[in-house]
Design a protein that fits this description.
The complex is a heterodimer. By secondary structure, chain A is mainly beta. In chain A, 13% of the residues lie in helices and 32% in strands. Chain A has two helices and eight strands, in the order H-H-E-E-E-E-E-E-E-E. In chain A, strands 1-2-7-3-4-5-6 form a seven-stranded antiparallel β-sheet, with no helix packed on it. By secondary structure, chain B is of the alpha+beta class. Chain B is 39% helix and 21% strand. In chain B, strand 2 and strand 3 form a beta hairpin. Chain B is globular. The N and C termini of chain B lie far apart (54 Å). The relative contact order of chain B is 0.11. Classes of the chains: A mainly beta, B alpha+beta. At the A-B interface, helix 1, strand 1, strand 4 and strand 8 of A face helix 4, helix 5, helix 13, strand 13 and strand 14 of B.
Chain lengths: 151, 421
Amino acid sequence: MNEPTSVFRNVQTLMGPVYAGFPSPTEDYAEKSLDLDDLVVSHPVSTYYMRVVGDSMIGACIYPNDVIVVDRALTAANNRLVVARLGEQLTLKRLQIVKPKRIFLKSENPAYPPLEVKRSDDFEIWGVVTWVVHALVSSRPHGDGDGRAAI
Amino acid sequence: MNVMLALVDCTSFYVSCEKAFNVALREKPVLVLTNNDACIAALSREAKALGFQRGTPLFQCRDLIEQHQVVVLSSNYSLYHDMSARVMANLAAFTPHPLEVGSIDEAFLDVTHVTAENLAVYGRQIRATVLQRTGIPTVVGLASTKTLTKVAVELAKARPAYRHVLAIAYIAEEELDALLASLGVHEVWGIGPRYAACLQAHGIYTARDLKYADQRWIRTHLTVVGHRTQLELHGVACLPLEPNVKPRKGIMRSRTFGRAIESLNELEEAVATYTARAAEQLRSQGSVASCISVFLQAPQYAHEATRTTLFPTAFTPDLIHYALEIVRSLYQHGLCYRKAGVFLSKITRQEVLQADLFGTFSLEDHHKKGRLMQAVDWVNKLWGTDTLFFGAQGITRAWQMKQLRRSPRYTIRWQEILQIT
């Protein structure tokens, strides 16, 4: 009589707990548990991640090695943090629009002066920064080749 | 009610994917190479202007590359695949119907809901949205048949004045004919080089000539395919949209090797690796397979064989076991193998379990294997492909594709995301 018991035990692990009498009263209420993606990523197809290098934005609580979430579907507005393309470089800055027609890219660190975008500059907004992911405990290692193990 | 279609064609797609993230490449001549860094697979406008051509072997253009400091990149397929999915998802928002994804870089959209006067503006919106959200420039052609959307795209590519978008619906017949007259018959969709030569020999040089050619003559010489093309040029839709929603019946993993393989040992490693990848995908869709085929290719040789597994499985070691049995039975000493592949078929949902007649199947064993695979997949998802792999796959894998100049997989790996200052 060994076989049938083992079969049923395994069925249990597949379907979640099975109660002998009435089904669990919570079963009707089963829902997907929280996923950080739902909170942080409003437009998955236009969202990109970047890793911050350098200290030019520490005034905005963005530190080296933080990951920023960039949405390219959003329109930039005054005071938004943006990833901007200036010529052949992408840069993370605060956008400042001074009426009537002046645009500044501002670092959040007094060591770096603001940059005025000139009419002649080859400039575009690449995307708008929506979230910052800042680790408080050193994150888990990301194996990339070296962490491989044969089984 | 006549349908209205839009064809969206990504401009130099592979190169555009690279430029979307590496903005320093913006105005530079860039080449993307095929598997193994052998030939030019895609090139930027700037590289085209320097005389580079698709398909040319890399070694033939070394001098030109050096002379103009051309940027040369290996293909970054995982990035292109992801960017293609993003482009398609953005396009899907512009039509109430399913897209027909023609290839990695083009799709047909049903835009019948758009009014005549808004059609060109709609095309511009499509282009602007895809460009802003993915960084990929496109060319958009709008017309009432697939063949005419292709015509519109060709014309928009050839003439900068159209600014990448051209609608050739709701225009006067004479105006359309004038446009068709400017397009060579060999540039018409579906007219291959042989048909083109035949047509030219009979004085049919342009798309307009083809449109007004004798219908009976076309049907005799170009069969029903040519006849359809002709009707489509007249605005009669013969080729409906075919959204590809068919569920996959089999899973295929195959690659060309980095170099020719002669030893059985290396061949086994390669096939075991492809099997492991295919099995991974099988599990990710919650399925099991009961049929496995392996093919091996050497110049002038192509062998394949199929095995039926004892019971449906997604357990990598079992599948590798069958695959290697096939490899050993096919292997011929002295051949230089160039390519191999694994195909899993007879795929069913995992929940439908079927014990075999002779009782070798044990449900307990099955679940144990399932849990092991779950753990392996979980580790590999967390820490990247191949953190855990099977010994049969080999460790150095000297046969792997050469991709010496691949760019980071910006949207695929956390370790490779773009750095920003």
